[in-house]
Amino acid sequence: MNGWVVSVYGDPCHQCGYDWRISLAGAVSLVSNLPNAYGGLLKGRSGNEQHPGLSWSVTEYVTHVADNLRIWAERLMGVVEGAPHLVGNYDENALAVARNYREIPLQASVWSLTRSVDDWLEAVEESATSGVVLVHPERGELTLLDVVLSNAHDAIHHQWDIVLTFRDLDS
Questions:
Q1: What distance in Å separates the CA atoms of residue 120 and residue 72, rounded to the nearest whole number?
Q2: Helix count (H) and strand count (E) of the chain?
Q3: Which residue among 5, 6, 57, 82 is least crowded, i.e. fewest CB within 10 A of its CB?
């Protein structure tokens, strides 16, 4: 496992409790279940809910998770198809501004998440037999396992943010 994630989030994650020792198959299963898990959380919600301690609304978190999965799927498939192993950074906050996350309806965000999960699952499957290794400017070398664990953590961490938002707003 790449040491960068543990140094940033802790093992387990200091906030959401994500256990980095999860298997590749277990992490893939978490991601594959995201549309159902998020769908259950979001039923009857507007998506405009926002925890006072967090910078994004619920819809913005869903949109970020969808974008993050799509970006990593693109990175994996690029390398599988012969692109250089070096991948670029992206600034999630700048992307949120560029895409105007605040104006994306929850329904569109959930649709995007479902599509992103499908694309991500395909990219992971294609990468599994290639021995893909990505080189990230901050994180260093990333195996497929590193990418999958990190992507699953991002999704589960933001699911935790959404649960926290609803819990605090409903109490």
A1: 7
A2: 7, 2
A3: 82
